Amino acid sequence: MSRSDCRRAIVAAATALVDREHPVTLRAVSRAAHVPTSAIYQHFPTSAAILLAVCDESFHELEAAVLAAADAYAAGIAYLDFAAAHPRRYRVMFGAPTSPNRHCGSSPASSPTPTAP
């Protein structure tokens, strides 16, 4: 597996964990991606860094859906459709106020336990 393929597999595995409401830990991502935990450290120093990559990928997906829309109304619908189709990712991207979990806008000190909501 190439370095870029390994990174993609790690982010995809972490995204799947988020979608299933499983904690995003290095060990869980390692199992889900079928890569050794040591391989993850070559790409991400912490599980929080993996979650930030999940956020980045999710924002790219959301952006693509909104930009593909024919007009502003359709863009709004695409945005809502994304949120409805991926509610757990959406919560990680924007942070649920009742969730103690890390989200894209949080600082490392504000959320010591990086898990999916």
| Number of structurally distinct domains | 1
Q: How much helix, percentage-wise, in residues? A: 55-70%
- Poorly predicted spans: 97-103, 106-117
Q: What is the total tally of β strands?
A: 0
User: Quick one: overall form?
Assistant: elongated
Radius of gyration over all CA atoms, rounded: 15 Å
Structural class: mainly alpha
**Assigned CATH superfamily:** Tetracycline Repressor, domain 2
User: Which fold name fills CATH's third level, the topology?
Assistant: Tetracycline Repressor, domain 2
Number of helices: 6
Description:
The relative contact order is 0.15. Residues 97-103 and 106-117 have low confidence and may be disordered. With 117 residues, this protein is mostly helical. It has helices at 3-19, 26-33, 37-41, 47-67, 72-85, 87-94. Helix 1 (3-19) packs across helix 4. It has a single domain (3-109), classed as Tetracycline Repressor, domain 2, CATH 1.10.357.10. The chain is elongated. The longest helix is centred in the middle third of the chain and has 21 residues, at 47-67.
Q: What's the SSE blueprint?
A:
Layout: H1 3-19, H2 26-33, H3 37-41, H4 47-67, H5 72-85, H6 87-94
Keywords: DNA-binding
Domain HTH tetR-type: 4-62
Protein name: HTH tetR-type domain-containing protein
Any key phrases for this structure?
DNA binding, mainly alpha, 117 residues, 6 helices, Tet_transcr_reg_TetR-rel_C_sf, HTH_TetR, Tetracycline Repressor, domain 2, 62% helix, elongated
